[in-house]
Write a structure and sequence with these properties.
The structure is a single chain. Helix content is about 75%, strand content about 0%. By secondary structure, it is an all-alpha fold. It folds into two domains: about 1-40 and about 50-80, no CATH class; about 90-130, no CATH class. The protein is flat and about 60 Å long.
Length: about 140
């Protein structure tokens, strides 16, 4: 629940930030926010015991996360509506799901498949914009 609230607030802050700075600047200041967490993360971590593979996965994870955030900031900077683009980016678990099916060999139940279909329908509904003259 905390994550939902924090990421909901972040969506608004991202749009406000993109209205007043460039996506590059916003990305730099977002990175500064991550750096502020380092003392808390380092306090109880086991960095010296991590395998090379674990470190590599963590770095690639951080890099792809940063690229995703940067592309979102760029979309917002270019005028994308936060009420559309931020919820659409929340459909990212669908990519994870497809990758888990392919790479990990996971399977979906019928109910989970129905959930995927509903998520896709929701994405279409969220991104639909009627003609400016049409009544909804």
């Amino acid at each position: 629940m905390i994550t939902i609230v924090l990421w909901g607030v972040v969506g608004l802050l991202q749009k406000i930030g993109s209205n007043h700075s460039t996506s590059n600047s916003l990305m730099l200041w977002t990175t500064a926010g991550y750096i502020m967490l380092l003392p808390f993360l380092l306090w109880n971590s086991h960095l010296l015991t991590l395998s090379t593979r674990s470190v590599a996965v963590g770095v690639v994870c951080g890099f792809t996360n940063a690229l995703g955030a940067w592309s979102l900031y760029t979309a917002l900077e270019r005028g994308a509506r936060a009420s559309i683009v931020v919820p659409l980016t929340a459909l990212n678990p669908l990519v994870t799901l497809v990758l888990a099916l392919i790479v990990l060999g996971e399977r979906l139940t019928t109910l989970q498949t129905a959930g995927v279909v509903l998520a896709l329908v929701a994405g279409v509904m969220l991104s639909y914009e009627p003609d400016s003259g049409a009544a909804v």
